[in-house]
């Protein structure tokens, strides 16, 4: 009879051999191929951008920053010479010649013009629409057209929310839309009433009063008047200029507003308020709001000379 320890040794040996055979028979695995991928991480400091190419299995990297400059670094640092909207593209190439491309939209140190016209790099870009904001800011008021745009004593300061609607019965003032395009073209939608926010004296001088649609703001020299927007209109933005305009408060009927940003328009076009002076001053602009100074000639004794100004906040409509 065999020793019981001999049987135990044989069982253990058999178990080990079985495990080895099993391991060899199940080892059908192959090397896993990780596909070529590409993504972009970035951080912005003013006009300087740090880019990182987050790639798998790439052997080369080609960057197009969208401003006419390129790089082949994996993680480049690029400084844009001008603020604005840019599309930066990364093209990664794998060892087998495969290619993967990805892109990001950047908003770099946006200048006022870019804030005005919006992100023209977007595929569905159709300009940037603005309208008068009904929830007036604390900086909205009715002013005298003097050198400092002092508040007009006969009007609330600041303007209450919705004053042109609930207060003056002209809610349509808040509906009209003004669209600025990157290429300098301009569109104006007067909506269903076919009328624009306007000066009362202007309407009497230019239409004999026949163009007046709603005179709810007559106590302040304001109304809405019929207006047909110009086809193919354009606008001009000037970042800094000395703007000369008419004024009953100025020597020889004019004043100069020094070092201001302005918007001017072709033909009969305007923004916000239709009156003798169609050029406006931009006091402030962000990506979602801008504050404009629009002039009014409200005295029948000084036809065409600005007597007042309306300072209003506009909001983005699209």
From TrEMBL:
Keyword DNA repair: no
Signal peptide: 1-25
Keyword entries, A-Z: Signal
Domain PKD: 55-115
Pfam family, one: PKD_4
Highest classification ranks of the organism: Bacteria, Pseudomonadati, Bacteroidota, Flavobacteriia, Flavobacteriales
Protein name: PKD domain-containing protein
Keyword Repeat among UniProt keywords: no
Matching InterPro entries: Ig-like_fold, PKD/Chitinase_dom, PKD_dom, PKD_dom_sf
Record organism: Zobellia amurskyensis
